[in-house]
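Can't paste images in this forum, so I'm doing it all in text. The chain is below; anyone willing to post the predicted structure tokens underneath?
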Amino acid sequence: MRKKQKISIKDISKELGISITTISFIINKKAENKISKEVIKKVEDYIEEVGYKPNSTAQTLRTGKSKTIVFMAEDISDPFFSAIAKEMEEIAFENGYKIIYCSTENKKERALELLSLFKDRQVDAFIITPPEGFRDEMEKLVNEKKQVVMVFDRYYNDLEHNYVVLDNLDSSKRATRYLLDSGYQNVGFVGLKSDISPTQERLQGYQHVVAANGQKDRSVLIPFDDVKTAEGKEMIREFLKRNPQIDSLLFATNSLAISGLKVLKEESLRIPDDVSVLTFDDRDLFELYSPSISVISQPVSELANELIKGTLNLLKSDFKESVKFQKVLKGRLIERNSSHLISENNSI
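Text version of the structure:
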């Protein structure tokens, strides 16, 4: 069977008797107010009929746009980041964009290698969860103004940039206050040893509330690379042994909570009888766990919508100085059995 010949813009021009330039304008969505609706419809109908597909490389060279967005997450396998990615993909696709996913594993060197790779491919935008120690590199990337840059999940106070984040300080304050108001006297905090904004703000929110209530700061910070290791579990175990009076625990991430739950089980500490548990970031495991685990849930759909729509709007603005996109969204505290009290509405 003879292979079907690929159709070019030149072929369409010859068939319809319309200039290549006019057809190019229509294909690249630049025909509005320049070309009559009748001609646009004629070309679009023919393109659909013959199944014409633009050459992506040639199109990038002509327009300077690859119609590609890179989502550089901390860990794309994490249920939180993968859920965000899935929802963004739907909206991006509807707007003619594709998304490429990758993980930095919170490593600066890896993030730099990925940036170099995708810059060479002329992607249109980066949505990045920056790793530790990445502030100066982020400033350089923002100032290049070659790609739209949107920062997700964390931000820099001293850098003017686009971002979409959770209100981590307020969420941590509400979580800590909820535990104290529920009658717990000694709230412990298990966080990350990191310079990124969410981990710092979650610790600060906890410290602010316990200090305001005359309670002692009982916190431990686990290095990122140790969270899922035996070393990380041992740090949590030793923390509990040093602070036997702790009657409730606030975990700063879902990964820390999973390690903590393993330690509590190994130490035969019952939830919530011996210690109450509350964690950031919901996942199916926490709802199915026995007892079910209370969480600060991030608004995944809203975060994804703000991220991708904000990025698309920035792409349309073509680096206008006045255009900035900065969103801070509220988390939701969902009460489950691990923190004793179950409200009528199941969330606050």
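Residues 57-63, 342-347 have pLDDT under 50 and may be disordered. The CA atoms of residues 298 and 331 lie 5 Å apart.
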